[in-house]
Amino acid sequence: MRRRDCFSIAGGTGLALLGEVLRQRSVLASDVSATPGFGRAKSVVVVVASGGQSQLETFDPRPDAPREVRGEFGAIETSVPGTFLCEHLPRLAMLADRYALVKSMSHEDLDHGSALYLALTGQYHARRSGNPPPKETDHPFFGSVLEQLRPPSRFLRTSVLVNGPALVPFEPGPGQFPGLLGRRFDSLVIGDVSTGEAAVSGLEQLDEINSQRQMQRQRLLQRIEHAHPQRSQPAIDMQTLYQQAYAMLDRPTAREALNLTAERPQVRERYGLHRAGQACLLARRLVEAEVPLITVMWNHSNRGQDRYPDDEEQFGWDTHNDIFDVMGRSLLPRFDQSFSALLDDLHHRGLLDSTLVVCMGEFGRAPVVALESRFAGATPGRKHWPFAYSILMAGAGVRSGATVGSTDRHAAYPTSVKVGPWDLIATIFHALGIDPGGHFYDSTNRPYPISSGRVISELYA
Fold first, then answer.
1. Which CATH number fits domain 34-200+258-459: 3.40.1000.10, 3.30.420.10, 3.40.720.10, 3.30.160.340?
2. Closest Cα partner for 250 from 313, 156, 167?
3. Which portions of the chain are predicted below pLDDT 50?
């Protein structure tokens, strides 16, 4: 066979194979777009209960279990027959017909840093069950992936992280950052919004700086950078931040969305005049501003009570000891008030149908109450437990009042429909109208799968 004939046949075969691949992709894309829940969400709000929210003291109580398993709290009926919540969640119990519970979340990572990384990236960290620092080579936060896949429009940022970054327990944990994607795809990070000051400082319109003077300053900066080009990565990152800041200054809608003082005092009080409550209120305002993804870190430290036992703003869900005191006195009442306000407000404003709301932690708590000598506190608590925990999901086509999965008599292990963080991330992208089987790309154009999980179809069936 001549060389030219060989290439001709190979070329024809290659084209045929390429055509078949494209056809299959088209079929798969049409199949994905036809599945329930696809593209139903204009926005997604993810509330992260950092530290490991106990399933037994929230969404999967066991009132008939032995005392060392069930703990000190009782269970109450909800608006959905057969569904029970912890007695300290009465407002959420009344709203049970507006959300679904996934009780069979499960994975194998036993420590906060790497488990938070898993929850926010859908990938196990190389240092599983540890507390590694964030690195530029990390797999990116799913908000950063969305920044690449869906460029911003009205608000100028696709992903906003409120009350962050999450501290584990006093240093930022991995998984919240763009990692290998670079700072260009970082989320807009907003810290404490309960102080009464601007959510993002520096966006106030100064009387002496009109649009013309602002433009002149921007041009001056550009001339300086052009005359002294910097090729280092920190300099490139700084230029990216400058561009984003100028873009936000040019958009009054962005500044207004971040202005909590525009809310009536009664509304702010309904959410709770504390960090978590006001963060949830800001999330609602960002939904109204059509921000695709808002991630709220419910508590900025996963275990701040060890260092600040008298400051409830520092409390986290990592309740190794004093679990019933910390949760009953502070964590659960605040969570019940603020999270129920968010769900109720979105519902009454007609936003819940187009907004997917998720509440999750990085894992749950052990089904045995015990005092741990290595941690602060004088009364018993619960250890880390990734093998079974619960999350809450609402809106954007999710079946109201549904329960997905179940656990054994001690809420220790799933007995059906085992679900992982990778599946949750697939479901979030699916709700936003993005095929989770697709790819994003790093700076060298190397492809990475958006998710290795499956859409939790039971939420929509």
1. 3.40.720.10
2. 156
3. 1, 18, 21-22, 24-30
